[in-house]
Every structure is written in C-alpha cells, then in structure tokens.
C-alpha cells in the first residue's frame, strides 16, 4: 500500500493493528565527484518500494522524506540541510499524524547516516504518546552486516558515503547517474578516539567528500546487496507485524 496513492476512504479502511506504516527518510547532499546529490533518497525509496511490493497487504509506505540532517556536509556545498531540532520535530510531526490516525506500528526506515541519532530521539519522543504503539527505527542496511562483510572487497566493511556499498547499489538501480571518475577516497579520519565521540564534519574526515573504495563497486555487487537487504527487511517487517501490542511487561513476556 502506498499512502500517497490511496484515497482517504481507502486509508480509513486499513486495519490499524495489522498494518506496518513505513516512513522512508533520507537526504539530499553532496556525494563526492561521482555520485548524485539525491543518492540517499533514490536508494531508500527503491528499498521501501521493494519492501512494500513484498507485503502489499500489510506494509503502508509514506512518501520518502528527502530532507535530512546534513549539516556535516554543508562545507562541501551541494547540500540541503535541516537543523537537528527542526528535523527531529518533523519526524515527530509525521509520527504524531500517523498515531493520531490510529496507526499502531510505525517504522522509520532510514537511508542516511546523519539521520540515525535524530530518528532515535524522535522515536523516544513518540513512544510515550501511545503506550500501546510500536515505534521502530533502523537504517535499511542495518539488517545486512553479514552481507556487507562477505561481499565488500575494500577495507571498509560498512556503509560510508558514496562508498563501495552506495556506489554498487546505485550502479544496480540507476547506473546512468554514476560518473566514471571513481577512485580511492584515501584516509578516513576517525570520529572515535578510545571510545570518545568526536564531532567532525566531512571536511575534517575526508579529502573529497566521500569514503572508501567506490572504484571497487560493481553492478553485480549492487544487485546482490539490494536483493539480500530486501530479503532481510522482509523478515524484519514480518517480525514487527508479529510483535504484540501491549502496555506492560506481562504483554510481552507472559511467562515472566
């Protein structure tokens, strides 16, 4: 089910307890010299649509929220940013709208690293509004750590920025948008020092605004990654749909 393609009457007839409302959230920002600024939005939208196609009777996707928390990219330009407090409140507004309309299972499905912390804050703020509701949040790649470790050839076995992972995904989905000037990003300056987080932007951490080894990306890797992620998200969605909707510990652990 696609929220923006349905009538109000169709949405009103949706089973609120047995529907998982998925809110794709992404960004529009610089992605180095070889990738489009809409990379996160393009990839996250494709993932959400593929998930909905797997579970069309129980997954309801909203339009992708293309504006993200991207201040750490602003010094490179070609970036549209939402300030953290505004972004958190935007996600809360979306969540409050869905909760107010009776939906009880909400999943923020993220496609941009800068959104991770604010979406968790938004989920924390939304949960007390309805003790019975399930409010979930995850980046779409978080379900596939094993796949990334096995498939990616470069030293970064994780999702970076315009990296081997994202470039492979884009080569699979929209190859015409990937430029030919792909090369090694060089050293990624750490943002963690002995367990202490350092707030560094992309000018501090990267030479050209991207990370890892996009030169190792291939269309075939992108196909395997995309299909594997959708398989895992499908299972995650079924798990969320099977979760009890309760208000106390006894509802979730009836045997103690």
Quick tags:
Rossmann fold; 10% strand; 256 residues; 9 helices; four-stranded parallel sheet; 6 strands
| Total of DSSP H or I helical runs spanning 4+ residues | 9
CATH architecture: 3-Layer(aba) Sandwich
Q: What's the CATH topology name? A: Rossmann fold
Helix content: 25-40%
Mean pLDDT: 97
Structural class by SSE content: alpha/beta
C-alpha geometry: globular
Blueprint of the fold:
Elements: H1 8-12, E1 20-25, H2 39-54, E2 59-61, H3 84-100, E3 105-110, H4 116-126, E4 134-139, H5 145-151, H6 164-173, E5 192-193, E6 196-197, H7 202-205, H8 219-242, H9 249-252
Helix pairs in contact: 2-6, 2-8, 3-4, 6-8
Give structural notes.
The protein has 256 residues and is α/β, with parallel strands linked by helices. 38% of the residues lie in helices and 10% in strands. It is built from 9 helices and 6 strands. Strands 2-1-3-4 form a 4-stranded parallel β-sheet, with helices on both faces. Strands 5-6 form a two-stranded antiparallel ribbon. Strand 3, helix 4 and strand 4 form a beta-alpha-beta unit.
In short:
The chain has about 260 residues and is α/β, with parallel strands linked by helices. Helices cover about 40% and strands about 10% of the residues.
């Amino acid at each position: 089910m696609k929220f923006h393609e349905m009538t109000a009457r169709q949405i009103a007839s949706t089973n609120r307890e047995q529907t998982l409302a998925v809110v794709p959230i992404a960004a529009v920002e610089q992605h180095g010299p070889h990738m489009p600024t809409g990379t996160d939005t393009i990839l996250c939208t494709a993932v959400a649509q593929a998930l909905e196609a797997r579970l069309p009777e129980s997954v309801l996707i909203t339009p992708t929220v293309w504006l993200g928390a991207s201040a750490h990219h602003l010094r490179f330009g070609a970036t549209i940013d939402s300030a953290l407090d505004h972004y958190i409140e935007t996600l809360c507004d979306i969540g409050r709208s869905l909760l107010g309309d009776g939906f009880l299972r909400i999943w923020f499905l993220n496609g941009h690293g800068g959104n991770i912390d604010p979406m968790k804050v938004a989920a924390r703020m939304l949960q007390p509004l309805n003790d019975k509701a399930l409010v979930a949040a995850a980046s779409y790649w978080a379900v596939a750590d094993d796949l990334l470790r096995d498939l990616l050839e470069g030293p970064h076995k994780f999702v970076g920025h315009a990296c081997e992972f994202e470039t492979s995904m884009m080569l699979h989905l929209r190859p015409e948008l990937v430029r030919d000037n792909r090369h090694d990003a060089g050293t990624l300056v750490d943002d963690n020092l002995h367990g202490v987080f350092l707030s560094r932007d992309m000018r501090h951490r990267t030479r050209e605004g991207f990370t890892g080894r996009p030169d190792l990306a291939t269309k075939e890797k992108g196909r395997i990654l995309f299909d594997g992620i959708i398989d895992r998200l499908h299972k995650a969605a079924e798990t969320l749909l099977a979760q009890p909707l309760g208000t106390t510990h006894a509802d979730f652990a009836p045997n103690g």
